[in-house]
Amino acid sequence: MLSRKVLIGVVAGFAMAGGATVAVIQAASQQPAPSIDKPVSHTFEEVDAFKATLAGALIKSPAEFSVSKAALELGSFRVDGEFAVCVSNIEVEAKQYVTLMKYLDVLTPKFPTVAAEVNHLLDSDIGLTDCQFRVLEALSRNVSTQ
Hints:
This protein is mainly alpha-helical. It has helices at residues 4-15, 18-29, 44-60, 67-75, 94-107, 112-123, 130-142, and strands at residues 78-79, 83-84.
């Protein structure tokens, strides 16, 4: 992939003489390709351990806890280096909204800030994402055990 600087040089070269353009293209093609880091590989145990910490974080600082931020972090987990734990840009299915109400029944009495954030998420263009749903699932499961 060409860097922005090289692309600007190529475009400028097209505006100038044809020979200069060839020189810019040749120079760009001789640069080494940037290295792409592999995503960090996680185990299912690490994913479960992360989910278990969410309830503690909510209990410790309910006003500062963010379902959205926790969902972004959960969405960065990759099992075996390639399989996403959840999807950050896809809305949950209709039947999951029914299950969501059960999660909120557990969370809302003690943590009204979570309910307020969920209401805000539901009003957004995408609705509740898969990762956000999984965070709420983990919270409802683990908050009663702490």
